[in-house]
Design goal:
The longest helix is centred in the middle third of the chain and has 58 residues, at 278-335. The strands form four sheets. Strands 11, 12, 13, 14, 15, 16 and 17 form a seven-stranded mixed beta sheet that branches. Strands 2-1-5-4-3 form a five-stranded antiparallel beta sheet, with helices on both faces. A five-stranded antiparallel beta sheet has the order 7-6-10-9-8. It contains 24 helices and 22 strands. It folds into five domains: 3-122, 2-Layer Sandwich (Beta-Lactamase); 128-246, Beta-Lactamase (2-Layer Sandwich); 250-357; 374-534, Histidine kinase-like ATPase, C-terminal domain (Heat Shock Protein 90); 557-672, Rossmann fold. 44% of the residues lie in helices and 23% in strands.
C-alpha cells in the first residue's frame, strides 16, 4: 500500500468518534487512532509495534487478551461490556473523568498485515442517563412507600425488620432506628399467628390476602391490624413485604352497628309490651323508630363503604399488575441479555405507579369529573347505527321498538359515551326481563320550562329527550335511591361492576344534561336522559376500525380485552413470546365487534370488570357466535369474592396480580386443550 493510501486510511480512522486499534498476527499494534491517543494519553508514535500489555503494563488485560486470541485463532468476535467488566482500559473524558466504555474485538482480512480490530465505544453519557432514570424511579417508589397510610415492612427470612415506613413509626411508637433489625414477632401479641403467616410466605411463596392480628405498641397498648404479605428474592435470599392496615376504627363501627341493631330489636319488643295511654305509646314508638332509622342509615353507609372499597381494590390491583408485570418482563429481558426495549416497560411501571397516586380522582366520574370528547351528535342516527347490536344483545325473547321523532335536534356530547350509555341501559333492561318483555327507545324534542328544568336540576331551554322503558321487574324506592352510586349493584359477582349507571350519570351531568328514573315494582322502569340542544351542523368523522386484519396462516389467535393499558401491553407481550397472534380491545364494545367479525379467534382473555360492558357479557356475546370459544377471565377482586360458581364450561379465571409465567402457562394450557 502506498504512503498516500496509508495517510488517507489514518485520516479516516482519526475521524471515527470512538477508539480504533488494529493489531497484526502477533497481536502488536498497527493502527492507533487520534481518539484513542487522546483518551489513553498515549500518542500514536509511542504505541506502534507494541502489544497492549506493553502500553498498559500495570493493567489486568486477561479478558481483552483472551478476546484477541480468539479473533486471531478462530475468527470469533467478542463484546466486552462495561456492565460485566467495568472500565477495561484506563481511559479519560475531555474533562478528565473516567470514561465508561464497551469494547468490541473482531477479526479483519489479510490486508497489510492487519489481523484484529478493537473498537472502543464511549457509553459514559448513556450510563449516566440510565442511572439518573433509575434513581428517579426509585425515588418515586420510595415516596409512595414512605407516604402510604398503611404500615409497610420488609422482613428477611430470619424475621428481622430490614425496612419500615413512617406509618410503622406512628403505629408502633418506636423510633425508626429501633425498628430496623428488630425481631418482627416482638411487635405482635398474636406472635404464633404472625410467625405462621411469615414462614408460609417466606418458605412457600404464598401471598396472603388478609389476616387479622393484634399488634403490641411500645407502650404496651394493643391495636388490631389486617396483614397481607408477599415474597420477593435477592439472589437466593428470600424476603417478605408486609402491609398492615389499622382496623380499629372499622371494628369500633361494627360494634356500634351491632349495638344499634340490638337497640332496634329491644325497641320493637318494648313497643309490643306497652300498656300506657295511646299518646305515650305513640311518643315512645316514634323515639324508638328514630333510633332504628339511624341504625339502618348506619348499616347502609357501611354497605356503601364496602362497595366503594371493593371497587377501589379492583382498580388498584390493575395498577399493581401493571407494575409487577412490567418489572417481571424487565427482569426476563436483562437475564436474557435483551435490554434494547426495556425502557417502555420501565416507563409503563412508572406510569402505573403515578396513576395509583391519583386513583381517588377516578371515583369522581359520577360527579362530573370524567374526561369527555364532545361533538355534534344526531341521537336518531346513533341509535340506528347500533340497533342491530342492541337487538342481538337483548336476545330474541324481548321485543324492541324504536320510536324516533322527526326533525330531531342535534346534541353536543361524547358519542362513544352516549353509545355505551344506551348499551348499558339495554343490558340492564334485559336483565330485568328474564321471562321476556318489551324494550322501548323513544326520542323527542322538548322545551323545559322553569319548573321542569328545576326538577331535573338543569337550565330551562331546549333539550333532546331519550327515554328507555322496559316492562321488567322494576325497582323498590330504596334501590332507586342508590342506583347512581359508584360500585353499587344488585347483580351477583361477575354479572356487573356497579359502574354503569354511575358513569351514565357523570357523563350526562358533565354534558349539562339530566338523567331521571321512574320505576315501579312489578311494572317496569323508565329512564329519561335530557341533553341540551346544539345549534350547528353535524360533523363528519371517520369510523374506527373494528379490529385488525386477519393474519395469514393457521397460527392461534388470542383476543385480549383489558381497559388498563399496561396490563393489556403485558398480556400481549406474553402472547407474542409464546408465538401467538394477539388482537387487542380496550372496551367490551370493541371486543364484541371483533368477536362478531370473521376474524379467527382461538382464545378470549378478558378482564372481568370492564368500564362499559362486563367481561362476562363479552364472553357470552362471543360464545353466542363461537360455540367452542374458550375464555380466560382476569379479575382484580379477591378470589373468594369473585369465586368460580358462575364459570361455565370452557371458562377459567386468573386472579390479579399474577406472574407472567403463570399467565403464559394458563394460556398455553387452554389453547392446547383444543
Amino acid at each position: 500500500m502506498s504512503a498516500n493510501a496509508d495517510l488517507a486510511e489514518d485520516a479516516i480512522l482519526d475521524a471515527v468518534n470512538g477508539g480504533l486499534i488494529v493489531l497484526d498476527q502477533d497481536a502488536r499494534i498497527l493502527r492507533w487512532n487520534a481518539w484513542m491517543a487522546f483518551a489513553s494519553g498515549h500518542p500514536v508514535a509511542s504505541v506502534l509495534g507494541k502489544p497492549l500489555t506493553g502500553v498498559f503494563p500495570d493493567l489486568d488485560l486477561r479478558r481483552l487478551t483472551t478476546a484477541v486470541r480468539a479473533a486471531l485463532a478462530s475468527g470469533a468476535s467478542t463484546v466486552i461490556s462495561r456492565t460485566l467488566n467495568p472500565a477495561p482500559l484506563p481511559l479519560r473524558t475531555r474533562s478528565g473523568r473516567t470514561l465508561l466504555h464497551d469494547i468490541t474485538v473482531s477479526p479483519v482480512g489479510e490486508r497489510s498485515g492487519a489481523a484484529c480490530l478493537i473498537f472502543v465505544t464511549d457509553v459514559t453519557m448513556a450510563t449516566r442517563r440510565e442511572k439518573y432514570l433509575r434513581d428517579q424511579q426509585n425515588a418515586r417508589y420510595d415516596a409512595i412507600v414512605e407516604n402510604a397510610p398503611d404500615v409497610i415492612l420488609s422482613i428477611d427470612s430470619g424475621g428481622l425488620i430490614q425496612m419500615a415506613n413512617s406509618a410503622a413509626v406512628s403505629q408502633f411508637g418506636y423510633a425508626m432506628g429501633d425498628l430496623i433489625g428488630k425481631s418482627s414477632s416482638l411487635l405482635f401479641d398474636t406472635a404464633g399467628d404472625w410467625s405462621s403467616m411469615l414462614q408460609a410466605v417466606i418458605n412457600d411463596a404464598i401471598s396472603f390476602r388478609s389476616c387479622e392480628l393484634i399488634a403490641v405498641r411500645k407502650d404496651g397498648s394493643l391495636s388490631y391490624v389486617e396483614a397481607s404479605a408477599s415474597r420477593w428474592n435477592i439472589g437466593s435470599q428470600g424476603f417478605a413485604t408486609v402491609i398492615l392496615r389499622d382496623v380499629n376504627e372499622r371494628r369500633a363501627v361494627d360494634a356500634a352497628l351491632r349495638c344499634s341493631e340490638a337497640l332496634a330489636r329491644n325497641a320493637a319488643i318494648a313497643l309490643a309490651d306497652l300498656n300506657q295511654t295511646l299518646e305515650q305509646r305513640v311518643d315512645e314508638r316514634t323515639a324508638q323508630l328514630m333510633k332504628a332509622e339511624e341504625a339502618l342509615r348506619q348499616s347502609q353507609k357501611m354497605e356503601a363503604i364496602g362497595q366503594l372499597t371493593g371497587g377501589i381494590a379492583h382498580d388498584f390491583n390493575n395498577l399493581l399488575q401493571g407494575i409487577t408485570g412490567a418489572l417481571h418482563v424487565i427482569q426476563k429481558r436483562i437475564s436474557g441479555g435483551r435490554i434494547g426495549d426495556i425502557d417502555r416497560f420501565a416507563a409503563g411501571a412508572l406510569e402505573s405507579a403515578n396513576r395509583a397516586a391519583s386513583l381517588t380522582h377516578r371515583l369522581l366520574a359520577f360527579s362530573r369529573q370524567q374526561p369527555i370528547d364532545p361533538r355534534p351528535v344526531n341521537v336518531n342516527q346513533l341509535i340506528a347505527s347500533i340497533e342491530e347490536l342492541l337487538r342481538r344483545t337483548i336476545g330474541e325473547t324481548l321485543q324492541m321498538t324504536v320510536m324516533s321523532a322527526d326533525d330531531l335536534w342535534l346534541v353536543r356530547c361524547d358519542a362513544n359515551q352516549l353509545e355505551n350509555a344506551i348499551l348499558n341501559l339495554a343490558i340492564n333492561a334485559r336483565d330485568a326481563m328474564p321471562d321476556g318483555g318489551t324494550l322501548l327507545f323513544e326520542t323527542a324534542n322538548a322545551v323545559l320550562d322553569t319548573g321542569q328544568a328545576r326538577s331535573r336540576e338543569v337550565k330551562q331551554g331546549e333539550y333532546v329527550r331519550l327515554v328507555v322503558t322496559d316492562t321488567g321487574t322494576g325497582m323498590p324506592p330504596e334501590i332507586q335511591a342508590r342506583i347512581f352510586e359508584p360500585f353499587f349493584t344488585t347483580k351477583p359477582i361477575g354479572k356487573g361492576t356497579g359502574l354503569g349507571l354511575s358513569m351514565i350519570y357523570g357523563f350526562v351531568r358533565q354534558s349539562e344534561g339530566s338523567v331521571r328514573v321512574d320505576s315501579k315494582t312489578g311494572k317496569g322502569t323508565s329512564i329519561e336522559i335530557c341533553l341540551p340542544r346544539y345549534r350547528g351542523d353535524l360533523e363528519v368523522h371517520a369510523e374506527e376500525v373494528a379490529g385488525r386484519e386477519r393474519r395469514a396462516g393457521s397460527d392461534e389467535v388470542v383476543l385480549v380485552v383489558e381497559d388498563e393499558p399496561m396490563v393489556r401491553v403485558l398480556v400481549v407481550e406474553v402472547l407474542k413470546d409464546l408465538g401467538y397472534y394477539a388482537l387487542e380491545a380496550e372496551t367490551g364494545t370493541a371486543a364484541i365487534r371483533i368477536l362478531r367479525s370473521s376474524q379467527r379467534i382461538d382464545l378470549l382473555v378478558t378482564d372481568l370488570g370492564l368500564p362499559d360492558i362486563g367481561g362476562r357479557l363479552v364472553a357470552e356475546a362471543g360464545i353466542a357466535t363461537r360455540q367452542n370459544l374458550n375464555v380466560l377471565f382476569m379479575t382484580g377482586y379477591a378470589e373468594k369474592a369473585a369465586g368460580s360458581a358462575f364459570l361455565d364450561g370452557g371458562m377459567e379465571m386468573i386472579t390479579k396480580p399474577f406472574s407472567m409465567d403463570e399467565l403464559a402457562a394458563r394460556i398455553r394450557e387452554m389453547i392446547e386443550r383444543n
